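Tokens for chain A. Residues wanted.
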């Protein structure tokens, strides 16, 4: 799955009909969180017209859909019968979106009242930027490092998994995985934001395509960013706006231990998919072999 095929509606959509912003929220068994998220979105959209909200529910069993419908009748809801994963679920929302700008937003996030206004202003003033993210914080105010990442090259991955990045977080040599050497309080180019808050122009998707559905959970945002940068678009981190990310909440309404085990499986399988797709032909066979072995070792150690 390359993510490059666009539906006919995307290829022929008239810019005259286009609204300003489409916000896509993927929901899976996060009833209370998704309602709070949508309430924060409503506040953030105050005095801003031309916006649509699309919620894609991935087969929730906690009455999420009913709660969303009760919250706001104007929200468009796509109801899936089962959990289709992050990429496939969001792609359904993307195919329905009509905005000039599109925001992928996790259901376990809270926006500030000025988040959307600031991000739109930043993107409109910087037409050379194809994708941007804001400062994504954990509830304690610390930075979610996933919003500020470099691509997982063999060296960046090795430095991260050996703990060298943690020992030397400001080092350009060892800190390539989370780009810790860049000024976190100033706007700058990065390789990839997190899918929790992924703000992009419609023309980026028209050129690059949708999320790759080979990824079920994790890695689809990195893969998208890699293809987007390969297509010549810039990706920026903008700390002038921020959100709070509660993280790792999706699906935890039930079967928590099972979810935790499956999450680990997805994470390491994702690493293999990304490496094979983007790096396998760039590096020698011995290094490729060692990388695959390293992923398996890390996976085994994580299960102990």
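Reply:
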């Amino acid at each position: 799955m390359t993510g490059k095929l666009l539906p006919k509606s995307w290829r022929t959509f008239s810019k005259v009909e286009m609204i300003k912003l489409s916000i896509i929220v993927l929901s899976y068994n996060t009833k209370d969180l998704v309602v709070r998220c949508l309430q924060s979105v409503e506040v953030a959209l105050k005095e801003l017209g031309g916006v649509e909200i699309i919620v894609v529910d991935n087969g929730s069993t906690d009455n999420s859909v009913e709660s969303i419908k009760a919250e706001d009748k104007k929200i468009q809801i796509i109801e899936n019968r089962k959990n289709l994963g992050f990429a496939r679920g969001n792609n359904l929302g993307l195919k329905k979106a009509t905005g000039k700008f599109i925001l992928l937003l996790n259901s376990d996030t809270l926006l500030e009242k000025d988040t959307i206004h600031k991000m739109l202003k930043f993107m409109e003033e910087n037409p050379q930027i194809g994708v941007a993210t804001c400062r994504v914080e954990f509830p304690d105010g610390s930075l979610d490092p996933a919003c500020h990442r470099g691509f997982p090259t063999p060296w960046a991955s090795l430095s991260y998994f050996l703990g060298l990045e943690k020992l030397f977080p400001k080092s350009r040599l060892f800190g390539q995985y989370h780009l810790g050497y860049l000024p976190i309080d100033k706007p700058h180019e990065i390789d990839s934001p997190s899918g929790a808050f992924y703000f992009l122009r419609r023309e980026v998707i028209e050129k690059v395509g949708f999320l790759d559905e080979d990824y079920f959970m994790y890695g689809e945002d990195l893969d998208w960013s890699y293809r987007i940068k390969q297509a010549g678009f810039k990706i920026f981190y903008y700390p002038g706006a921020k959100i709070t990310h509660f993280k790792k909440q999706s699906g935890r309404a039930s079967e928590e231990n099972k979810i935790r085990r499956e999450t680990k499986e997805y994470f390491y399988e994702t690493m293999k998919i990304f490496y094979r797709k983007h790096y396998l032909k760039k590096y020698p066979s011995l290094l490729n072999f060692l990388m695959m072995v390293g992923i398996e070792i890390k996976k085994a150690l994580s299960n102990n």
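The longest helix spans residues 256-278. The radius of gyration is 19 Å.
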